Amino acid sequence: MSFTLEGRSGPWEIVVGLEVHAQVTSEAKLFSGAATAFGAAPNSQVSFVDAGFPGMLPVINGECVAQAVRTGLGLKAQINLWSRFDRKNYFYADLPQGYQISQYAHPIVGEGRIEIELQDGSTKTIGITRLHLEQDAGKSLHDQHPGKSYIDLNRSGVALMEIVSEPDMRSPEEAGAYLTKLRQILRYLGTCDGNMDEGSLRADVNVSVRRPGEGYRTRCEVKNVNSIRFVMQAVEAEARRQIEVWEEGGTVEQETRLFEPARGITRSMRSKEDAHDYRYFPDPDLPPLVLEASWVERLKASLPELPDERRARYVAMGLSPYDAHVLTLEKETAAYFEAVAKGRDAKIAANWVMGDLFAAINRTRTSIAAPPVKAEHLGVLLDLMQDGTLSGKLAKEVFEAMVETGKSPGAIVEERGLRQVTDAGAIKRIAAGVLEANAGKVAEYKAGKEKLFGFFVGQTMKAMQGKGNPALVNEAVKKLLG
Amino acid sequence: MQPTDFSLRGAIEALNEGLVSSVELTRAHLEAIEALNPRLNAYVTVSAEQALAQAKASDERRAEGIAGPLEGIPLAIKDLFCTAGTRTTAGSRILGNFVPPYESTVSGNLLRDGAVFLGKVNLDEFAMGSSNTTSAFGPVENPWSRANDPDTRLVPGGSSGGSAAAVAARLALGATATDTGGSIRQPAAFCGIAGIKPTYGRCSRFGIIAFASSLDQAGPVARSVEDCAILLRSMAGFDPKDSTSVDVPVPDFAAACARGVRGLRIGVPREYRLEGIPAEIERLWDQGLQWLRDQGAETVEINLPHTRYALPTYYIVAPAEASSNLARYDGVRYGLREAAPDSDLRDLYERTRAAGFGPEVRRRIMIGTYVLSAGYYDAYYLKAQKIRALIKRDFDQAFQGVDAIVTPATPSAAFGMDEKQDDPVTMYLNDVFTVTANLAGLPGLAVPAGLDAQGLPLGLQVIGRAFDEETVFTVGAALETAADFRAVPGLRAGAV
Amino acid sequence: MSLDTETVRRVASLARIHLEEAEVARLQGELNGILAWIEQLQAVDTSGVEPMAGGGATRLRMREDVVTDGGIAEAVLANAPDRAGDYFAVPKVVE
Ligand SMILES: [Mg+2]
Ligand SMILES: [Zn+2]
Q1: Is residue C78 part of a domain?
Q2: Ligand nearest to the CA of A102
Q3: Is residue C71 a part of any domain in this protein?
Q4: Residue B102: helix, strand or coil by DSSP?
Q5: Beta strands in B351-496 (DSSP E)
Q6: Residue C15 is assigned to a structural domain of this protein
Q7: Euclidean distance between CA atoms C72 and B38, whole angstroms
Q8: Domain count, chain C
Q9: Looking at the domain assignment, is residue C22 inside a domain?
């Protein structure tokens, strides 16, 4: 399916590549022992290394390296056993050393790929150019004082993975699907929490437009977009702007821009002079990063199941591709589903999770991470249906009670006396009473009006306040009529 | 004899035998500093009270039977080593009154071993210089002077000019120093003392204010080779806080001083016979080689063909790294801030750095920035790194046939404070014999070996294999013994 | 390669060092002197030579992922020329 934007002079194709900065999940920073937790008091998670004090030296955190390798493996990418840290030199208030330690010439991870899923059910492979490790900068607050900016260095030195894609995306939807899938992979791997509100995942979106079939035209980089929806909006807004420029006979200038969600436009960033002369050179404080192939193999062997593999497994368990897709989107959902489905019918489990549970989450404004019904409780509920203790109808009632009270299904069944009647003799007596009271209808049935069978079953159930075991009720009615 | 005349080794013995206390030693040095420092300007910060308190505590430890290898020994610390609670300036205005809350690993190791710190000694600003005239705290004077021209004040060499002058004038028993292109060996030679730049990775760089990270290495200066060996043993050692630190055992360097050179093969690089070098330096070099042969060593001509490219290579690599290392001095978190009331951040940076850095530092930052900038990286920086590899390769090949290399330490004796200041390149040539060891990461020792016709000290240099400081000390001690260097500078404790 | 005055100004700006107009010409002369001297390196045949970045440890040693530092805001801020509470303060930056 090809996506184009219609200009006055004909159709335009969008070309998108993403540079994603993902905060590495680790206790301590990339080159210092300070903590990485979000939301700490200003400058409370800062070592003298992070603040660029004289004589301070970086020492690398091995777990951050492992996380980058795990991510590379998850992106089916080449792991470079020899990589190196370079300095990217520029002055900025929240860059204490006057340079960022990054990997420019020799990244730890090379080419890889991600398969994205689109609305129409099709899939597409997006190329990964590279992944490298680097330090985050601190944070400037510009709105605290009329004449000053305030600097908090808590983020300074936190490990980031910069994941660069090929310019393989051709629509806002594909850009959104790519970021969704990348985030999903990172979260499955546990290498980045994917929390876009807290800045754990930020995207720089490179956008250009071209006539279908043409080579690439000049691109612009929309910096630091912090939600998937905004990425999609920014792609479209920036593409429309560029189309306008080209159609008016102008030229798109390569530049850095900012997306303004409130106005739905991108605007040029106050151009930083010298911004493009970073004077990269190998960091003389850091020898090369040399990995053992056996160490990489061990990380590979201990990699968790990834979304694509998990989805395939769910399909093999009998779920539809759609259900498998939905259940694997968030690893918490998949974990919940697996807890419910374990030793039970996968299809029934999937229906309950995607139906009643999702509805309850929406209604109660909770999340799968803190669900209104515990997975083990839902599992027991399915067992009670399976062993005939509860009918489907009763089960729904019990489920709602679970949402309300948080109690276990067993407790609710006991408290409310919702246990299904499975005493065949008792059912037979009640059914017999129903037939007796409806002798006329019994005659009609016997004369051939067979659809009255349902009426007798319904009346019997009603007489039992819905607690009769449906199969036994059916059987009893059939026998008595027979 | 007064306490300031002890050698470091002699002072340790005197302390052990109870002939002197650390408080007495320390007080004698403090008094000498008070008398001479106004003239020499070797110390920029004298920590008299702290030193006496440390000495007192040291004497108490000794009385309790606990004595470290340097127990009670008063030392001077180059003001490039961060010292917790004591102002550390790097000889620059830009650090203002910076007081580090942390201790460099090397100075910390010395404290661990019982040393007493008399104070912080002067240096070329950010260790950039060969004359100690670029310090924001004014020049250091060499305690030596020319016999026929006693009024011309001479430079002590640099950048560790304060360290060398203080030790030569007996204002400390030893001092820490650093060497990026010759900054330990050249001032040691100019001041008639010994100094060793160890193998890169031998001493931790943690807490030492960086000039050029891939070349910087800490080492001691002292009045004898053995004193240097004793100090280096304490200063050296693996440090997990420095990623370039090498995890190898620290041997007993002092023991190596007594090994003798019999059977050693000493390399004599042809390329170090430079045109324009004073004949007396050539003669001293030949004399040194003869001394070694007399003690049973064999001397061998070797080739180090890329020697002549070492200095220009250094003047790409060092400024490039420095331009980046010094970017942190921006007036935001510590040190000097210069700004007008209406300055924006950029203006603040530019004013702070223009006012805070002296001319030589600014010049090197400019060169370093230029050689790394877009379009020039390959022609300059990458080219220099490749030539650096060739220089290293020259040494690797030479060391297949020899155990150590002996050269002059400097191309001249100490010069006047007003000489050689006009053209930067002339000044840079001071390091012509020393800089190769930094580029190759090898240990280099300067040993006082004789006097020139003016009565100024001249030194020889011993270069060794990586992590073979022991052989370097062996050869250095042999030269020292043969030279029997007993001359003393005019300006020294007790002499004025 | 020799520097013109424009390049001298650009390099000073990259390095964030304020230059007085009067300094430009002098600095240009000094820098060109140094660069002319460095130029001799171009004569060295370095084809096939691997660049050498430095000495010391030959590969990075990896640290454990344990919080061992931080929690020292006061010490980090103690030398600051200007601060506001627990923040460093600089002239307002407009993005
Ligand atoms: Mg980017
Ligand atoms: Zn980045």
Answers
A1: no
A2: 2
A3: no
A4: coil
A5: 404-408, 444-451, 457-464
A6: yes
A7: 39
A8: 1
A9: yes
